[in-house]
Amino acid sequence: MRSHKRLFFLFVLTLLAVAACGGSSRYQGMDPETLFRLATGEYAENEFGNAAETVDRILLFYADWVRLADARMLLADVRYAEGDYLTARTEYQRFLDRYGGHRDAVIAAMGVCRSLAALSPDMPRDQVFTRDAITVCRNVLLDYQGTAQALEAAELATRMRLKLAEKEYLIADFYFRRKLYDSAIKYYEFVANLYAETEFAPKSLAGIYYANVAISYEDEAEAARKRLLEGYPESPEAAAIRTSGSGY
């Protein structure tokens, strides 16, 4: 019995050795520079699985290579390109944690921003990634002013804020359509105050106006009407209220 166990153990070791040799055969005789060129070519050809495997070999077997930062950046780019945004975010952040002073730190920071924006879900799902994207992208804007990445980060942050404004507006509209006017007004006010630069601000002020008209709060309705006409005079909502008159 003991000899059988020993033979089985040797058989398993042999299989593992054969598998290991077979898995590394395409890398036979390659130094880290050659591996990196191979991974770069695979990435360019959209062979993301192969590219990731090749970079992983560099990171595993050549931890003291002088261009290890480049390899880690390439791995992050590969993960982003294949749509694995959660892993890409982790890899870009790992690059920043280890090579904060590297010339490509701004690219890695933008990679985190892009990854979080890509993770931002459609409505009405929870928008945690959207909020994280706003924070990170704003940090890129502040930390790397004057760069192309800063401009892109600002655009992404704006887009994410627009998404959050839409979410809160839809909640307000949900309450309004069910004639729960007090709750609707609360959410409309939130949008009008916190997302004043978005298209949902004049929509929300109009919502506040109509909700207060519905419950006969004339002073509050007039205040909302005035805010809309003065703050967003060119908006479709302002034009609609001008056409409809006071509404009383």
Structure description:
- This protein folds into three domains: 29-82; 83-162, Alpha Horseshoe (Serine Threonine Protein Phosphatase 5, Tetratricopeptide repeat); 179-248, no CATH class.
- Helices cover 77% and strands 0% of the residues.
- It is built from twelve helices and no strands.
- The protein has helices at 2-24, 32-44, 48-61, 68-81, 85-98, 105-119, 128-143, 148-177, 181-194, 200-214, 218-231, 236-244.
- 35% of the residues are buried.
List the helices and strands and how they pair.
Elements: H1 2-24, H2 32-44, H3 48-61, H4 68-81, H5 85-98, H6 105-119, H7 128-143, H8 148-177, H9 181-194, H10 200-214, H11 218-231, H12 236-244
Helix pairs in contact: 2-3, 3-4, 4-5, 5-6, 6-7, 6-8, 7-8, 8-9, 8-10, 9-10, 10-11
Question: What structural keywords apply?
Answer:
248 residues, mainly alpha, 12 helices, 3 domains, Serine Threonine Protein Phosphatase 5, Tetratricopeptide repeat, 0% strand, single chain
Which outline best applies?
A: elongated
Runs in which pLDDT lies below 50 for 5 or more consecutive residues are 7-22
Radius of gyration: 28 Å
CATH class of the largest domain: Mainly Alpha
In the CATH hierarchy, what is the architecture of the largest domain at level 2?
A: Alpha Horseshoe
Summed up, the domain count is 3
Percentage of residues assigned to helices: over 70%
Strand fraction = under 5%
Largest sheet: none
Please give the alpha-carbon distance between the first and last residues.
Answer: 96 Å
CATH superfamily of the largest domain: Tetratricopeptide repeat domain
CATH third-level topology of the largest domain: Serine Threonine Protein Phosphatase 5, Tetratricopeptide repeat
What order do the helices and strands follow?
A: HHHHHHHHHHHH
Number of strands: 0
Quaternary state of the chains = single chain
Q: DSSP helix count?
A: 12
- Mean of all residue-level pLDDT scores: 91
Q: Give me the secondary-structure category.
A: mainly alpha
